[in-house]
Write a structure and sequence with these properties.
Blueprint lengths: L11 H8 L8 E7 L2 H10 L7 E7 L18 E7 L10 H15 L7 E3 L3 E4 L2 E13 L2 E11 L10 H4 L5 H5 L5 H22 L5 H6 L7 E5 L4 E9 L5 E5 L4 E4 L3 E4 L3
Helix pairs in contact: 1-6, 3-6
The structure holds biotin.
Biotin binds next to α2, β3, β6 and β7.
């Protein structure tokens, strides 16, 4: 698919035609503008939407990142989408969906770039240390089972660094800036949904162990000193990898191995 000039809406009919009989993406809810695709997907999930329904918007007025941060969402430039999932996984394994999405994202994005992107546990996709994409996973659990998961993905595609607000320019990047040319957002979207469909299927059928080698192969922080914020507690140490369940393993400065299920990881210089 040739890249559309910037400012042009996604060709959703074309995306649907390429997706065919995918489990994910059988229903696409497309908006020119929305508050947040995650918020809308949660509302749809609460009203009984099926697994695989996807909310896509050209721009978000209240795009949300992790930890209450804002997600910059300029129109007709990037991808902002939220997938509704109804996994059969136990609730304690729900965070593995973020890890599966990270594998799908590096595989998708890697196919448009000359080198491999990296994963910063648990949800950032980086290239040369700069953020290309983020994942916001929100789950609703009831009586020991996962009712639904909304998997939100924001991916910078034709968003030139020069057009980013000053505070993003040092730490964000985009496919166009890395590849040197505009990319068809439809091609990226189709590939991403297909890769997500495959990785989610592997997770459901074989567990995270099936995806772990590919996740580890893209792990950005291996051996690096990191600081992990655990809601009131700070752990400083060396990131070793992830365990069978997807928890981050950090050897702290006291030589103790810590298994971190949720937290914000900051790479340290030394
Ligand atoms: C992060 O890195 O902090 C996560 C960013 C997630 C952004 C996406 S854009 C589509 C979806 N809708 C939202 O409001 N957020 C996610």
């Amino acid at each position: 698919m040739p890249p559309a000039p910037s400012g042009v809406a996604l060709d959703i009919a074309c995306v649907k035609a390429y997706l065919g009989a995918n489990r994910l993406g059988a229903t696409l809810h497309y908006f020119q503008e929305i508050g947040s695709t995650n918020t809308h997907a949660r509302e749809l999930a609460e009203r009984g939407a099926d697994e695989g329904e996807i909310v896509i918007a050209e721009t978000q007025t209240h795009g949300r990142g992790r930890l209450g941060r804002r997600w910059e969402s300029p129109p007709f430039t990037n991808l902002y989408l939220s997938l509704i999932l109804r996994p059969t996984l136990p609730p304690r394994h729900a965070p593995q969906i973020t890890l599966a999405a990270a594998v799908a994202l590096v595989e998708t994005v890697g196919s448009f770039l000359s080198g491999p992107p990296a994963i910063k546990w648990p949800n950032d996709i980086l290239f040369d240390g700069k953020k290309l994409a983020g994942i916001l996973t929100e789950a609703a659990c009831d009586a020991g089972r996962v009712e639904y998961v909304v998997l939100g993905i924001g991916l910078n595609i034709n968003y030139r660094i020069a057009a980013m607000p000053a505070e993003l320019r040092q730490r964000a990047t985009s496919i166009v800036d890395l590849a040197g040319t505009n990319v068809s957002r439809e091609s990226v979207l189709v590939r991403l949904i297909q890769d997500m469909d495959r990785c989610y299927g592997e997770l459901e059928e074989s567990g995270f162990e099936a995806l772990r080698p590919r996740w580890e192969a893209h792990f950005a922080l291996r051996g690096q000193r990191v600081q992990v914020e655990l809601g009131g507690q700070t752990v400083v140490g060396r990131a070793l990898g992830i365990d069978r369940e997807g928890a981050l393993i950090v050897e702290d400065d006291q030589g103790q191995r810590r298994s971190i299920v949720a937290g914000d990881v900051i790479p340290l210089e030394t």
